[in-house]
Amino acid sequence: MYDLAIIGGGPAGLAAGIYAARANLKTIIIERGLHGGQMQNTLDIENYPGFASVGGPELSEQMYNQALKVGVEWKFGEVRAANLEGQPKTLQLRDGMIEAKSVIIATGAKPRRLGVPGETELAGRGVSYCATCDGAFFEDLDVIVIGGGDSAVKEALFLTRYAKTVTIIHRRDTLRAEAILQDRAYGNPKIRFVWDSVVEKIEGTSKVSGVVVRNLKDDSTRVIPGA
Which of these is catalytic: 44, 95, 130, 183? Predict the structure, then answer.
């Protein structure tokens, strides 16, 4: 039996595991994907203390190796059921059960879907949720990024390495991203902005050809071509 089982091997899960193992707690991390979670899909991390700039995969690897070094056990798998009442806590995986005195749930986040027509049908055919994974497929194309927060602006900036143009569509009239990211986006000649608008539909047959956007102020709609 473990002192601590951690569900999720992203930054939070890895940090918790390192602290626990250093306190001589028998610790296991259960992760169904890559160690580091969404950090693996981040090209440059510039807001992590101690690093002016570090690649997401590089930081993921460092944290993972540190966790193993201090004694954390790593289990690749998915928790299918959990009983967190009483002692011990039990976690049911496909290939067995794990018992622990305590459980930390650090399952992280996943990309938020728009839920509009065409999104599911064109996933992998122009609809992408990871610029660092798929950016090279958009070489010299007009690309559309939806959103105005940190993640969206970082993705847009990364895509300018490949795309001919990048259009950011945002439901507000100003970005919500960090000021430094906003400055970079506004100063990039490849990036364009469509304000006060939401995507109503993603168009295309075999691949994305554009999006239908609706202006939230005057309720007008138009098609913006793009991949």
Answer: 130
